[in-house]
Amino acid sequence: MKTNEQIVDEVAATMAHTWLAACDRRVIVGTLIPTKFMVIDQRQGARLFGPAGGDECRLFVHRSAALDVLRALGTERVAGAAMVAAANGELPALNG
Predict the structure, then answer these.
(1) Residue 95 counted as domain residue
(2) Are 4 and 80 in contact (CB under 8 A)?
(3) pLDDT at 45 over 70
(4) Residue 61's closest CA among 80, 76, 45, 48?
(5) What is 49-68 written as a DSSP string?
(6) Beta-bridge partners for 38
(7) Most CB atoms within 10 A, among 1, 16, 67, 84?
(8) Exposed e or buried b for every residue in 33-54, given b needs 16+ CB within 10 A?
(9) Considering the domain boundaries, does residue 75 fall inside one?
(10) Residue 96, domain member (yes or no)
(11) Residue 46 covered by a domain
(12) Cβ proximity of 61 and 28 under 8 Å
């Protein structure tokens, strides 16, 4: 049986790997309009979002990455890790 620390470490590692991969895959590129950008998927070579402002594109990339993380973890793992943290009365630090 895994310890609470092992469970939290495993979830954190999966989150980090998935987040970075998602952000690497979705790239913000310029358009012909100097103040507008769009997000493309490097794997598919398809436009995912835009044209829009830079902040809107960054928000799209981060929201998409968060969705990828939730999909990778699945609801059971997320719920399990949350219950372990809540049962101990302490939440893991995000910055180590």
Answers:
(1) no
(2) no
(3) yes
(4) 48
(5) EEEE-HHHHHHHHHHHHHHH
(6) 29
(7) 84
(8) eeeebbbbeeeeeeebbbbbee
(9) yes
(10) no
(11) yes
(12) yes
Q: How far apart are CA 60 and CA 62, in angstroms?
A: 6
Q: Which residues span the domain enclosing 28?
A: 4-88
Split at pLDDT 50, 70, 90, the class of 64 is confident
Q: Is the pLDDT of residue 94 over 50?
A: no
Q: What is the rounded CA–CA span in Å between residue 47 and residue 28? A: 10
Structural domains in the chain (count): 1
Q: Are strands 26-30 and 37-41 parallel, antiparallel or unpaired?
A: antiparallel
Burial pattern 14-26, b for ≥16 Cβ within 10 A else e, equals: ebeebbeebeebb
CA 51 to chain centre: 22
Per the confidence metrics, is the pTM higher than 0.85? no
Name the residue with tokens 């970075």. 20
CA distance 53 to 24: 19
